[in-house]
Amino acid sequence: MDNNRSPLGPSVLRLREAEPADLAAVVDLDRRLTGTVKTAYWQTTLERHAGGPPEHCFLVAGDADASFVGFAIGEVRAWEFGSPPVGWVFAIQVDPDRRLVGAGTALFEGLCARFRAAGVDRVRTMVDRKDHLILSFFRSQGMMAGPSIELEMTLDAAIDGGAR
Question: Which CATH class is domain 14-159?
């Protein structure tokens, strides 16, 4: 094998629509990355986005022997305050042992292709400013700060009128 080529290069990596049979692999990858088992959450997400309307995307990446490498989820939707429809990336997760071989980029590009086909010209996501890995990934894809600023508060603060 050519040493300059990744074992999961673009000619070997396969993207496809997620299927119900992918649930266990999605749950396991998320558990390994977050430390939390969220079977019900991923079941609902899979049901909503896999095989649903064209504006919902749930893609799975696999290698040549069909091994699960990762997944990406996105949706075309209008956001609050009159924003026009855009593509939203909700999740991209790649097996840590399979990173740096183009799987995340392929998944991101797959979502972007779906978004373009749906007629939108922008893609957005939200990341935790402390999550340097995913922030660096999205920046490497050409993403940058957008026009919105996320605001939040804890709900128990709202009980006291927000004073804390």
Answer: alpha beta
The answer, yes or no, to whether residue 1 has pLDDT greater than 50, is: no
CA 74/CA 163 separation, integer angstroms:
36
DSSP element (H, E) containing 75: strand 68-77
Type and span of the H or E element at 91? strand 86-94
Q: What is the pLDDT of residues 36-63, one digit of tens each?
A: 999 999 999 999 888 878 789 999 999 8
Domain boundaries, the chain: 14-159
Q: How far is CA 61 from CA 35, 58, 85, 93, 129, in A?
A: 22, 10, 26, 10, 26
Query: Mean pLDDT throughout 100-116?
Result: 92
Question: Which position has the token pair 């609050």?
Answer: 80
**21 φ/ψ angles, rounded to the nearest 5 degrees:** -65, -15
pLDDT of residue 152: 86
Task: Give the three-state DSSP class for 55.
Answer: coil
